[in-house]
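lol forgot to send this yesterday, sorry. C-alpha cells for the thing we talked abt
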C-alpha cells in the first residue's frame, strides 16, 4: 500500500509534514502581476505550493450561457459566463512566467489542466 507520494522532491503522506497548497485559482483576475502577488502571499504564508487554474473559455462554456444572479450581483453587471471567464483567463505564456517566478521564490507551482476538446454549442 502506497503511504507517501513525492511532489517536486517533497514527500507527502503518513509521517511527513503537512503539505500546504495555496489555492490562487483565478483570483489574479486575468492579470499576471496580480498572480505574482498571490505567489508572494503564498510564500509569506509558508505554503509549500501555489495552484492556479488554466483554461480556455472557448472550450468550457458557450457564448450564450448566462451567469447566475448572485454572480451578476457580485460583479455588478449582467454578462455571459464566457465573457466573465475570458476576463479571468491568463494566456499560456503567462503560466510559463508564473512557473519561473515560483522557482525563483522557492515554492512549488501547480496548475489544473485545460480541457482539450471544445464545447459543442
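and heres what i got for the seq, position by position
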Amino acid at each position: 500500500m502506497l503511504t507517501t507520494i513525492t511532489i517536486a522532491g517533497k514527500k507527502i503522506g503518513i509521517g511527513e509534514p503537512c503539505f500546504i497548497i495555496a489555492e490562487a485559482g483565478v483570483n489574479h483576475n486575468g492579470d499576471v502581476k496580480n498572480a505574482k502577488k498571490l505567489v508572494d502571499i503564498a510564500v509569506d504564508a509558508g505554503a509549500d505550493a501555489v495552484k492556479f487554474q488554466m483554461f480556455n473559455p472557448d472550450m468550457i462554456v458557450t457564448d450564450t450561457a448566462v451567469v447566475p444572479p448572485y454572480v451578476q450581483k457580485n460583479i455588478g453587471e449582467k454578462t455571459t459566463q464566457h465573457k466573465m471567464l475570458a476576463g479571468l483567463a491568463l494566456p499560456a505564456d503567462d503560466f510559463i512566467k508564473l512557473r519561473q517566478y515560483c522557482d525563483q521564490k522557492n515554492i512549488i507551482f501547480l496548475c489544473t489542466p485545460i480541457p482539450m476538446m471544445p464545447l459543442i454549442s
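The radius of gyration is 17 Å. anyway ping me if u want another try
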